[in-house]
Design a protein that fits this description.
With 191 residues, the chain is mainly beta. It has three helices and 13 strands, in the order ββββαβββββββββαα. It has a single domain, classed as Jelly Rolls (Sandwich).
Length: 191
């Protein structure tokens, strides 16, 4: 079964739905195909690193972005639990700068997100031990990682009010989007 790809309201972000095949033995899920990615990005995501993260209920990670050239694109899916996954346009000069889009990803859905270079990423775990799996176009480079405040009221992400949030010291110390822009910490938008 072919994947269904739809553009998200932020340029450079896509939702990929890859149907799961189920029978009496279990299921099979083809969650990434280079030719599918190439068809909607114009290039290919040649994974240079694969990661997974496990997060307790209420863990909020991000907003994170890799700056500089080359940037880092991501292909993300949830293989255990559930998360609210958010793409934030932190590219200075972008027509959608400061806007965000949220998708619920879970182990019961057959959905992945592709985020182009320069887009910010954050997520909130909705279950105990939620696991996200990432394919990355470039290895992680801590010296080029930038954080933006996920609770910045000017960005205005509507996280659920009924979940107690846990964040890392790094995320707590992150600047607001406006502060990061003034300090020239964010990637530039390129066409």
């Amino acid at each position: 079964m072919a994947a269904h790809v739809s553009a998200l309201p932020i340029s450079g972000a896509w939702k990929i739905e890859c149907p799961r095949i189920k029978d009496h033995r279990g299921s099979f899920h083809e969650w990434f195909r280079d030719d599918t990615v190439r068809a909607f990005t114009g290039g290919s995501l040649r994974p240079r690193q694969a990661n997974w993260s496990v997060s307790h209920l209420g863990v909020l990670r991000g907003i994170s972005v890799i700056t500089g050239t080359p940037g880092q694109s991501k292909y993300v899916t949830c293989v255990r639990g559930a998360v609210l996954d958010v793409v934030v346009d932190v590219r200075v000069g972008s027509p959608t700068f400061g806007r965000w889009h949220m998708e619920r990803l879970s182990e019961d859905q057959d959905v992945s997100l592709y985020l182009d270079e320069g887009l910010g990423h954050a997520f909130l775990s909705l279950a105990e031990n939620s696991m996200l799996v990432y394919l990355l176009s470039q290895p992680h480079d801590p010296a080029r990682e930038q954080r933006v405040q996920a609770l910045d009221p000017d960005v205005g992400i509507t996280w659920p009010a009924d979940i107690a949030v846990t964040r890392s010291a790094k995320d707590l110390a992150a600047p607001s989007l406006a502060e990061a822009e003034r300090a020239r910490l964010l990637p530039e938008y390129t066409i």
